[in-house]
Amino acid sequence: MLLLMYMLTMKGEHIMVNVTRDFFIALSNSEFLNKNAKKYGFNLGAEQFVGGTDTESVLNTVKELNAKGISCTVDNLGEFVNKKSESTAAKNKILQLIERISEEQVDCHLSIKLTQLGLDIDYNFCYENTEEIIKKAAEHDIFINVDIEDYARYDQTLDIVEELAKTHKNVGTVFQSYLYRAEADMDRFKDVRLRIVKGAYKESDFVAYQSDKMIDENFIHLVKKRLKGNTFTSIATHDHKLINEIKQFIKEENIDKDLFEFQMLYGFRTEMHEGLANEGYHFCTYIPFGDEWYGYFMRRLAERPQNINLVLKDKLYDENNQIKKKPLIIAGTAVAALSTAVLLCRRKK
């Protein structure tokens, strides 16, 4: 329960957690922890952040959210693959998922990562895998979002998406407001469905803003610019202050609600998911699934340690920002993940 030592919970103050990026990166890269997390993880609460381990379980999660008026995008966990056989297996799993989404008629599209499909192996191999997925999805009127990863793979990802978008209408990508070049690149894709995010990876000040204030300001700028256009945009943030500012802009400019959706990660700020949907906004939950959950979750914390605040806030405070009666019952959150790491290491010793 190391994290509890760093929390300030007096009078509903914001939770402050002293964590470091390197710590979580080290955990995410541990083969031992990843292997054992697959075995024990869903007994320790990983299901709060991962929508299932296989196609059937994630589709059940999608159905539950659809019943609440929430659409979904699902991500088959796994990235930075360096074997063609693994990329091919991932592609086939995604193709099967497309078929199941169509059969079940659920409100769901897919988010894919090019490193899972072979970007680090061979550019053309990756392109062919991605196009096969997009063609299959088009047969069933399903949208494919190509997630942006770290900056080292940024240009290649945009090149592939731009080329595919010339002949396929069901493909889009992501722009990160912390990148200096985000607006210029976004303008290249003005007719393509996009997701706007702040950006989660740790990037150099040569390419990215380092100030939260500047990142937030650019996020708002990019979103407002897109909302004045006529192409669908996913607004992906857990920051209620930014959401409120955007909602005010939408009202003032009389923006058609069918031109955008709000989007958040499965398991984070869950009280806001249904809230926004109930207000009449399109809302989409990003759902990762698969047994590679441990590396995924550790990277989410490594990329943006503030996510621990969101996780703990969900567990410690109610919707009125009052501390819950049993704040120590937080198994299945970041504390469980970190405790798991410690316990597994001790077991290894």
Structure characteristics:
13 helices; TIM Barrel; alpha/beta; disordered C terminus; 2 domains; 8-stranded parallel barrel; 349 residues
Topology:
Elements: H1 21-28, H2 31-40, H3 55-66, E1 71-76, H4 84-104, E2 108-112, H5 123-139, E3 144-146, H6 154-165, E4 171-176, H7 182-188, E5 194-197, H8 212-227, E6 233-236, H9 240-253, E7 260-265, H10 270-278, E8 283-289, H11 293-303, H12 306-316, H13 334-348
Parallel strand pairs: 1-2, 1-8, 2-3, 3-4, 4-5, 5-6, 6-7, 7-8
Helix pairs in contact: 1-11, 2-13, 4-5, 8-9
Structure at a glance:
The protein folds into two domains: 1-45 and 304-349, no CATH class; 51-289, TIM Barrel (Alpha-Beta Barrel), CATH 3.20.20.220. The protein is built from 13 helices and eight strands. The chain has helices at 21-28, 31-40, 55-66, 84-104, 123-139, 154-165, 182-188, 212-227, 240-253, 270-278, 293-303, 306-316, 334-348, and strands at 71-76, 108-112, 144-146, 171-176, 194-197, 233-236, 260-265, 283-289.
Structural notes for this entry:
The protein has two domains: 1-45 and 304-349, no CATH class; 51-289, TIM Barrel. Mean pLDDT is 83; it is low at 1-19, 326-337 and 339-349. Strands 1-2-3-4-5-6-7-8 form an eight-stranded parallel beta barrel, surrounded by seven helices. It is α/β, with parallel strands linked by helices and 349 residues long. The radius of gyration is 20 Å and the shape is globular. It has 13 helices and eight strands. α7 links the parallel β4 and β5. The chain has helices at 21-28, 31-40, 55-66, 84-104, 123-139, 154-165, 182-188, 212-227, 240-253, 270-278, 293-303, 306-316, 334-348, and strands at 71-76, 108-112, 144-146, 171-176, 194-197, 233-236, 260-265, 283-289.
